[in-house]
Amino acid sequence: MKSIFNYYKSIFLALRSLWQGMKLTGYYFSHPKKMLVQPYPENRDTLVIPSRFKGNLTLIHDAENLHACTACGICEINCPNGTIKILSKMEEQEDGKKKKVLDKWVYHMGLCTFCGLCVDACPSDAIAFDNTFEHSAYKSTTLNKVLNNPGSKLKSTVK
Fold this sequence. Notes:
There is one protein chain. With 159 residues, the protein is α+β, with helices and mostly antiparallel strands. 25% of the residues lie in helices and 21% in strands. The N and C termini lie far apart (76 Å).
């Protein structure tokens, strides 16, 4: 007898939940000015993106194509999804010592959860998120990006 009661109770609760949802939908249908939906892409000129928005990950370069990445790999270690792959090489310096230098900074945007742990962990503040929000792509291979510009070098002020 208790199982029959629970069966009808679950049907009643489902119908009540459905009624509450339909009531809310009906309210917004009859009051369209209260909706928070903005037309897209027609509103691009007036679109305001908050400064803390996390869009694409970028390796910051200055006007002379210099960056601050020392290829330490801390961002790669802190990434929970394996989104970042840093490829480095050893170059001989003028004084004869060898130093690790950034060769390729690969970012797999399709794996990224935009958590920001890599940006927080970077000791030289070489990476940041920009405000780009259109991430859709027809091919998943276009989501794999090399962030360091061709011919870019490490700033001399970074150790």
